[in-house]
Structure formats: C-alpha cells, structure tokens
Amino acid sequence: MSISLTDVTVTYPDGGRTLTALDHVSMKADPGDLVFVTGPSGSGKSTLLAVAGALLTPDSGTVLIGGAPLGPDPARVRRERIGFVFQQANLLPSLTARDQLLLTAHLAGTPRRHAEPRARALLDRVGLSARADRRPHQLSGGEKQRVGLARALMGSPAVLLLDEPTSALDSARAHSIVELVREIVAENQVAALFVTHDTTLATPADPRIHLTDGHLATP
Fold first, then answer.
1. What is the distance between the alpha carbons of residues 41 and 152, in angstroms, rounded to a whole number?
2. Domain spanning 3-217, CATH class
3. Rounded to an integer, what distance in angstroms lies between the CA atom of residue 113 and that of residue 98?
4. CA–CA gap between residue 2 and residue 202 (Å, rounded)
5. What are phi and psi of 196, to 5 degrees?
6. Do the strands 191-195 and 34-38 form a parallel or antiparallel pair, or are they unpaired?
7. How far, in Å, CA of 85 to CA of 153, rounded?
8. Helices (H), 6-137
9. The pLDDT of residue 16
10. What's this model's pTM, rounded to 2 decimal places?
C-alpha cells in the first residue's frame, strides 16, 4: 500500500503566537519506496512522521494509506498497518531479542504458534538468528536497531516509519542498517519514510524530500 499526505498543515500554540510545524506539505511513498526525509532540527521532520503514523491529526489536509483515509480509530491503523523504528531501539531490558518480537505479536493478538515462526524468520532476515536469546545489554548498538527493525515488521505493516534510527551509530553501521532497510522495503513492498539528519545515507537514486521551516524545499 502507498501512503500519501496532501496539503497537510500542522500548527502549535507558542506563547502568544502560533508556530506552523508543517505548511501545506504534500508527499507520497509507493510500495517498495524508501523515501528519505531530511532537514535541519525544527524543520518539521518529526511532525511529518507523527502525522504519517496516525499519532497526530493535522489541522488540515489528508492522509491516505492504500488510498483510504485513516478513519476514526487511529490506534487500530497504527496496530494493523504501520511499523515504527525509533531513534533508540527502546528494547525491554529483561527480554531476549526473540521475546521482544513475540511480545509485540502478543499485544496485537497474534497466537504464539503463528508468531514464533514469524519471529524466527525476521531475526534470520536481519542477521540475528545466533543472537535470538541475547538480551539488550548483550547486543551492540547496530544489533539493537536490527531487533527494532524486525520488531516493527512483525505485523507485516504496509507502511514503515523510521525516526533517526542510525543517529547513535558510527558511519559503517549506519550505512549497513540503511542497506538492510532498503532491501527489506523492496522485498516486502512496504512504503517507507526514513527521517535522518545524515544526507550521506541516501543514494542519488533514492526518493527524498527536504523540509525547511515546515516547507518542502530543495536540499
């Protein structure tokens, strides 16, 4: 499924004035697209991701997933159609890599007999089969982000949203994560938005949007 934002505006009260975080922004990601979202701090990147992820309702404009509006139950949309990968992996310290994924499936109501093969397959896909029984303190930063990526894919989402997932990694690990994401997005025909400050992560062939002060701008 594709995700599209059309003429989206988001404002916040800021003392005695109004701050415009997104100003009539339109963009689209089709299945198999990895769209990089770049821009300086405060440019609206995180707000765009929150709107795309049904975490924030815009003042105006529309958000469509697979051509359909989000509807009255955004929590259900997030649960069934959207996967999130965060700046920090946010793994539960007491759970193994495998159990991080199984907990996500349990919260979504997926029977364990279906979740276990899915978790094994995803950990294998991100290169962590041998680390499935390790807890977060036993994993490197790059391995934690790979667990986070696998966890985001447990529900077979149509849309994958990544919020600065490589910001705490060195350059080699960051590019390795991006290449893995690019492959998984293509394989699963997910529509993905990848927010980053690091413009070197995108190749010339990657679709990209750049935000400045809430506006779409030329990088």
1. 25
2. alpha beta
3. 14
4. 20
5. -155, 150
6. parallel
7. 9
8. 45-52, 74-81, 97-107, 112-125
9. 84
10. 0.93
